[in-house]
Amino acid sequence: MRRAPPPSGSAPQMGLEALEVVKKKVSAPPRGPPPAAVKQKAPPTAEAKAAAAAPSSGAASSSSSSTTAAASTATRKTGGQAVFNFQPVLKSTYRELRHFVLSPCQPGVIVRCYIERNRSGSKMLAPFYSLCADLEDGTGRELAVCRKVLQSRTSHYVFSLKSEDLWRRRDQRSRLYLGKLRAVGHGEYVLYDNGICAAPDEDESLLEEIEEMHNGGTVRSDTANTSIARKMERDRAAEAKNSGAKSSDDVSLYRREMAVIKFNAMNRPAPQCVRGLEVCIPAVPSPTALAEAKPASTSTTTAAGVSMTSNIVAQPSIFNLEKPFKKIRDLGRQNDLYGKTCTVLHEKTSRYDPLSACLVEFKGRAHMASIKNFQLVVSDAQAHFGLPSPSTHEQMMRADGDKDFVFMMGKTTEDCFNMDFKYPLSLFQAFAVAVARFDAKLSW
Predict the structure, then answer these.
(1) From CA 218, how far away is CA 213, in angstroms rounded?
(2) What pTM does this model have?
(3) pLDDT in tens, 244-269
């Protein structure tokens, strides 16, 4: 079993004659090539983590190298696909790791992780989740942790890079605190960053002006009386009042919605023409814009090849995703309405096979049948498929079958799940989607 500790038990007793034969075989010179090293399946010790974090010969890059050069060392090829190499990340500081966790992953690269779930003892009612980097050698490195908070009216999860923050009050948590996931309705979850208070409501004119600006339209200066101008002025005043934080990257005054997760159906397979799960995240610049954009301020390059500049493209974004996401779903205009502001993903529509039980097309990353095995793909506008009908359902399955996954989770052991994701998701958003899947009471 993958990453499971070896079974306990004592070895059988040997006779003296058998023991002498074994000694002779061990002392005899080996014949042929040496055997391959056995992969460590047990959870890594401190020595194993230190050895895994050590850079291999010729693979380390200096901290003064450019972002492009550092990013090239952060990937490797496995089976024809570029897989992110976590070795540079393991050498980074907590501040650099936090920026890596919150930033969208590198375009064209698969980030492979796994989640360990702990529901034993006192954690039965408040499960503990640990997100680890998959080092592809049977070991892992913990990147982020999550815990369910008890004594809450709705499901409430907190995320941090440091496990001590999960048991502290909000005002006592460190700067490594990432944010929280709250259930706001039946089958609906909202992921917030580490902001202190709720953001004020934003009217629809703000979304329209942001869309016009992204489409090449002109927007008046900040002193003009427009929605964008008022928003930017309000944000600057709010950050000026928030003097407790050392920088805006550590904590902000207003909470920003990082993702909205909506379960449209609680049964699997989902009804025909119904997308079982939809996820809305803030739109990020395209890979071409990321490559051509110049940072608004002086940036530094981390060991993981990620720019430390928080605003790669200096454009205003919205704080609230829930209201525009609801309007997008009602009109069936995913990635069409507010397409420059919100990116919508949905659970891949496939034909249910009780024999494989969602193990097909998981590329060997799912070893057990589970209702938690699923994939997310970029959504097409649902209104383009026409009225719900059996033929419409077949069209949706064919459309999803040609798409590559953006997020994938597969069960390997009883409490271990592989989690792979791609651009435009960040590690924080992908972790929250997996936790929401754990919390949702889905059934076959």
Answers:
(1) 6
(2) 0.73
(3) 444 545 666 778 899 999 999 888 77
